[in-house]
């Protein structure tokens, strides 16, 4: 089968399309004919092997997994022993540790869910990592409740576009931060207020929030914590940081600083969850959440897709068509 193959760490160009053996589903596993995937921050980390601390998990000298890619949507080709929820022909979506940038992927049944109705494969593949991050950051880490106010810094990106919609679905009053060309997009997602960061500084707007979700990492923790109402929560889900620790440095500082008076600083470290995929399916089918895809690249052009993502101004999600 065709797959993107990674033999070393480096810039996106080191990823090459090649032929590898088609995986066979083991106990409790499903073989999915992948129809689409999407690009996430984690793909940059896996490709470059930066921050270096991540190599403790990814492989110290070279990547442990030869085929990268986390998000997938496709059709069940075959199932291994013990699989009860899916059979050949079912449309599914989910998240894998690695191996989604390929024609076929082996996925534990517990990390798959039925694909939401009414979506293309590209739209469905945009959901798992970004939608799950939005849900866990706001509902679980932020404990966002109806009637509360939330600020989403980085509202127009992959995680941000889901976050604005999830926050509205939770009944919150949402302020999104993005640059000029994305103001209308963020408003169309349901944001009550949109701050164009090229024209106004949200930290100087005199506003306070119950929850702040930071997806950019361009403000100090103190600056963000000062914008919280008493009892408020700052949720960090942002990249950036140095080449050794990356976002972990900022997250560790937040752990040390929290609780910040009567404010709480929390990181949102997200694990795979089929339960959340089912919740996202419901939100999508009810019309509360709609995945947005800026563009789709064919499998052979994953390096170009990663280059696009690396500019850090993607407008919603970048999909990969397999
Ligand atoms: N915790 C987890 O498990 C987890 C999982 C996934 C992602 N993440 C983190 O979430 C973050 C966002 O990921 P993503 O996939 O959404 O990235 P993305 O699609 O690249 O989005 C980044 C967004 O940041 C915005 N941005 C850039 N500079 C900005 C500024 N000065 N002020 C406000 N917004 C700015 C851009 O919007 P404009 O073009 O409008 O500027 C862009 O849309 C990443 O840092 C990643 O590490 C965490």
Automatic annotation (TrEMBL):
Where in this chain does the record put each Enoyl reductase (ER) domain?
10-320
Give yes or no: UniProt keyword Transport.
Answer: no
Species annotation: Nonomuraea ferruginea
The signal peptide here is none
InterPro entries for the chain: ADH-like_N (IPR013154), ER (IPR020843), GroES-like_sf (IPR011032), NAD(P)-bd_dom_sf (IPR036291), Quin_OxRdtase/zeta-crystal_CS (IPR002364), YIM1/Zinc_Alcohol_DH_Fams (IPR050700)
Could you tell me what this protein is called?
NAD(P)-dependent alcohol dehydrogenase
Q: Which UniProt keywords apply?
A: Oxidoreductase
